[in-house]
Amino acid sequence: MIGTTAVTTIERFIIDQEHKYPEATGELSNLLYDIALGAKLIAAATRRAGLVNVLGAMGTVNVQGEEQQKLDVFANEILKNALNHTGRVCILASEEDDAPIPIPPEYPAGKYVVMFDPLDGSSNIDSNASVGTIFSVYRRVSMEGRGVMEDVLQPGHRQVAAGYILYGSSTMMVYTTGQGVHGFTLDPTIGEFLLSHPDIRTPEVGKYYSVNESNYARWNRGTQMAVRGFHGDTPERIKGKNSRYIGAFVADFHRNLINGGIFLYPADTRNPSGKLRLLYECSPMAFLVEQAGGAATDGVRRILEIQPDTLHQRVPLAIGSKADVEFVARMMEEHGTAAV
Ligand code: AHM
Ligand code: MG
Fold it and tell me: Ligand 1 centroid vs 88 CA: distance in angstroms?
C-alpha cells in the first residue's frame, strides 16, 4: 500500500517546536530524542517478551520491596544508557534505584535532571497487557558539577518537559514541553514515531472512572462519596460514568486523556499516601493533564504544587477531566479525608 508522504517524525516535530524559540539551544530537543530512542528499544524488547523467554521475575526486589521483572531491569538500563553520556543531564533518578543515579565520572554533566519509571504496570507483562514508561525533566537548581538531591526534589510546576510511552496495541509517545500535549505513534516498519495526535485536549467531563475498587472499604469518606457519585448514586450532583481499570497507570491515563475520564489512586488505610510516586509518576502526568485542559489533585492540593521531601515519596492521586477532578476535591471537602 502506498500511503501519504506528508508525515511528521518526532525528530522533525521537536526541531520545528524548538525553532519557535530563538533562545533555545536544542539541548532539550536532543534530550527528548534520546528518550524516544530509548523508548524504541524498550518497545522492541516488550514486543518480543513472549518469544525470548524474558517473562517472569528475576528474583530480586527493588527499593519499594516489589519483585522486579526482567523487562523492568532492562528498561531501566536502556534509559540510563540513553541519557547518561550525552552531557545534557546532571543527575538521573528511577523508580528502580534506591538513590539518585549519578552521571558516570567519564562523562560530562549537563543542565537537566531526568526522572523516570522505566516500566510502569510491570505486573501486566506476563499477561500480555499494556505497560508504559513515564518521564519527567527539570532544569537543575545546583550551579555546577554533578547533580545533587536538591536538583531531584523539585515541585512539579518546575518541570520543563514530561511524557510517557505506552506499549499497547501500538507504541505511542506522548509529551509536553509546556506548549500543549502531542502524541506520536511508532511505525514499526520504519522505526519512527510519527505525529498522530497533535495538540491533545481532554474533555472537560469524562466518560470513564478508573480506580481499584477492591480498596473501597479502606478509603476515607470523601473518596467513597466521590466514587459513589461516579457509580451514579448521586445524580443530583454528578452523572454516573462507565468503569475501566487496567492496572497500568499509563494505559488507564491514556484512555482517559483521549476519551475523557478520571483515574484515582486514593489514600487507604493500608496505603495512607496512596500507591503512586510523586516525582516520576504523579507530577509528570499532572503536567501533561493540565496542558491538555485537565487537572490533578491529591484531594486537597494541586499535584504540581507539592514540594517533595523524598525521592520515592507517594501521594494520593485523582487526575483527569477537570470537572471530575473538581468533584473529587469537593467530596473531600464535604466528607473529609480522615481514614475510615
Ligand atoms: P508499579 O510501578 O510497581 O508498576 O505500580 C504502579 C501500578 C500502576 O501502573 C497502576 O495504576 C497501579 O500500580 C495498580 O495498582 P493496584 O494493583 O493496587 O490497583
Ligand atoms: Mg510505577
Answer: 31
Concatenating the DSSP letter of every residue in 238-307 gives: ----EE---S-HHHHHHHHHHH-EEEEE--BSSSBTBSSBIIIIIHHHHHHHHHTT-EEESSSSBGGG--
Looking only at the bridges linking them, the beta strands covering 57-61 and 67-69 are antiparallel
Residue nearest to atom 18 of ligand 1 (CA): 212
Domain extents for the chain?
10-197, 208-335
Q: Which class is domain 208-335? A: alpha beta
8-24 exposure pattern, b = at least 16 Cβ within 10 A, e = fewer: bbbbebbeebbeeeeee
Residue in the block written with cell 533518578: 93
**Region 184-202 average pLDDT:** 95
List pocket residues of ligand 1, CB cut-off 6 Å. 66, 95, 117, 120-122, 212, 247-249, 275
For residue 66, the one-letter residue type is E
Cell 519527567 sits on residue: 136
CA of 95 to the centre of ligand 2 (A): 7
Cα–Cα distance measured from residue 215 to residue 80, given in angstroms and rounded to the nearest whole number: 35
CB 279 within 8 A of CB 136: yes
Cβ neighbors of 198 (< 8 A, separation 6 or more) are: 180, 182, 183
Q: What is the pLDDT of residues 264-285, one digit of tens each?
A: 999 999 999 999 999 999 999 9
Q: DSSP state, 9?
A: B
Give the ligand with the smallest distance to the CA of 280: 2
Residue nearest to atom 11 of ligand 1 (CA): 249
Report yes or no: 31 and 92 within 8 Å, Cβ to Cβ.
Answer: no
CATH number assigned to the domain with residue range 10-197, chosen from the 4 options 3.30.540.10, 2.60.40.10, 4.10.410.60, 1.20.1200.10? 3.30.540.10
> pTM higher than 0.70, yes or no?
yes
Q: Ligand 2 centroid vs 237 CA: distance in angstroms?
A: 33
Per-residue confidence (pLDDT) for residue 66, from 0 to 100: 61
